[in-house]
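Worked example 3 (structure in, sequence out).
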């Protein structure tokens, strides 16, 4: 068996082990997941404390306690407030009005009521200049997108969720792939279930992008997927799973991710999304209005940088922010230089209400 396949199988075994321990205590499971008896790692003892794996407790708590808290509060009849997490901002790009907050009515009128059908496509990840240096020294970055219903569909006992994970891995030389290759279509990962039905027009989504320094079974598994599929961005998808199953996936990710220190490029708990006025009234200003069009996902502390140049900027069909009037043949070069201190995801949303 060649080395890449052996590492991939180790990663798959790790995933299965973590899934089997989904009900274990947070203290026990990461340590079990981090150990590797085949490599002779001894169990931690008083005489050998260094054998105990270092757990990123904040990351573990995020995935096992915080990430779904706003959706759980809403289900309990309370305001869906986020935990102590600085959720990113979502800017809607209007061809005539420019960049607007996604909750701004100026972004476009919403239907009064109905059921929402949503499709997502990540057009581009544009890292900040500093990110490119940092990511070049890291083993992997993972973008995870989750979209969940608040009401079950007719004939079903439980609301459903869609989850997709894409991995951004440095190339052989240790650098990120070219900017034009950093794109991701969750619908591809969801196969024939690319359109997400949102009963009564109200759901929740979360966007989490994290990077880690050490090579792990998680990154080896995605490296294997990249080699097998010959793609720049390998991905995994879980379409139309029960919300209770999504919570088990959260635990699995938390157990695996917390075995190494995490750097967050984007971090969010479940954020309300609405496609109708009736749904917007239920969550107020805390939600994101979904209209057919294009969005930027930006860290909260970097939104001001875009506001400063909003009148001079445009969002290209490639999903990149560049100065107005940029030569179409020089879009990628211009995007590298424009707003160098800002990282963003550009996203296309198709939203139909019936």
């Amino acid at each position: 068996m060649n080395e890449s396949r052996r590492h991939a199988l180790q990663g798959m075994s790790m995933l299965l082990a973590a899934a089997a321990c989904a009900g274990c205590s947070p203290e026990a499971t990461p340590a079990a997941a981090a150990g590797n008896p085949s490599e002779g790692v001894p169990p931690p003892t008083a005489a050998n404390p260094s054998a105990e794996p270092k757990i990123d407790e904040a990351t573990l708590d995020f995935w096992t306690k915080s990430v779904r808290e706003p959706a759980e509060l809403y289900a309990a009849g309370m305001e869906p407030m986020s935990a102590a997490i600085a959720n990113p901002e979502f800017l809607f790009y209007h061809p005539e009005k420019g960049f607007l907050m996604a909750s701004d009515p100026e972004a476009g009128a919403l239907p009064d009521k109905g059921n929402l059908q949503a499709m997502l496509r990540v057009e581009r990840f544009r890292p900040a200049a500093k990110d490119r240096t940092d990511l070049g020294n890291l083993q992997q970055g993972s973008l995870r997108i989750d979209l969940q219903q608040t009401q079950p569909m007719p004939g079903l006992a439980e609301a459903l969720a869609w989850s997709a994970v894409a991995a951004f891995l440095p190339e052989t030389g240790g650098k990120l792939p070219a900017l034009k290759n950093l794109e991701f279509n969750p619908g591809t990962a969801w196969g024939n279930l690319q359109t997400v039905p949102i009963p009564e027009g109200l759901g929740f989504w979360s966007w989490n992008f994290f990077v880690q320094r050490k090579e792990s079974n998680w990154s080896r598994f995605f490296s294997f997927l990249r080699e097998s599929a010959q793609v720049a961005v390998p991905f995994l998808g879980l379409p139309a799973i029960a919300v209770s199953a999504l919570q088990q996936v959260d635990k699995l990710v938390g157990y695996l991710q917390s075995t190494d220190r995490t750097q967050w490029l984007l971090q969010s708990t479940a954020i309300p999304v609405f496609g109708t006025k009736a749904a917007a009234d239920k969550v107020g200003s805390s939600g994101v209005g979904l209209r057919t069009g294009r969005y930027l996902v930006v860290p909260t502390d970097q939104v001001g940088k875009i506001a400063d140049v909003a009148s001079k900027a445009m969002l290209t069909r490639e999903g990149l922010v560049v100065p107005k009037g940029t030569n179409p043949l020089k879009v990628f070069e211009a995007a590298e230089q424009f707003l160098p201190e800002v990282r963003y995801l550009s996203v296309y949303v198709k939203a139909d209400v019936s």
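Notes: The chain is about 30% helix and 25% strand. Residues 3-42+55-84+108-291 form one domain.
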